[in-house]
Amino acid sequence: MNGGAYPRWRRDGRELYYVAANGDLVGVGVTPGATFGVGASTVLFRTNFGFTGQPLTGAPYDVRADGERFLLAVSPDDPNATPIRTVVNWPALMKDKTASK
Predict the structure, then answer these.
(1) Alpha-carbon Rg of the chain, whole angstroms?
(2) In angstroms, rounded to a whole number, what is the distance separating the alpha carbons of residues 48 and 79?
C-alpha cells in the first residue's frame, strides 16, 4: 500500500483502519504494548472515497467499537445508497399516537 488517510482505531487498539489512495478501506492488525507490532494490511472493501493530499477534515466513515461494522458517508446521487432516517423525539410521537386512539 502507498499510504492512506482517514485513520480510525478499533476501540481495543488492536486494529487500525484507513482509506488507501485508491479508495480501498484497509485494516491493519496491531499488537500494542512495550513491543509494538504491526501485521499485514488487509483490504476490507472498496469505498468511493479518495484523497488528494489536501488537508483532511474528519473521516467520511466510522467504525463500530468491535470493528465488525462501518458507517460510510455516501453521495445522495449514488444509485446504491440507502437512506438512513433519524427520528428525533420519538417518545413524544408515540405518546401522540396512543392519545389519539
Answers:
(1) 19
(2) 12
Residue in this structure with the C-alpha cell 500494542, named with its chain if needed = 32
Contact of 71 with 62, CB cutoff 8 Å: yes
Model confidence at 40: pLDDT above 80: yes
Question: What pLDDT, in 10s, does the model give residues 59-97?
Answer: 788 899 988 898 887 767 777 777 778 888 888 888 876
Indicate the residue type of 7: P
Sign of CA dihedral 9, 10, 14, 16: negative
How far lies 19's CA from each of 42, 55, 61, in Å? 11, 15, 10
Q: Count Cα atoms within 13 angstroms, Cβ side, for 34.
A: 0
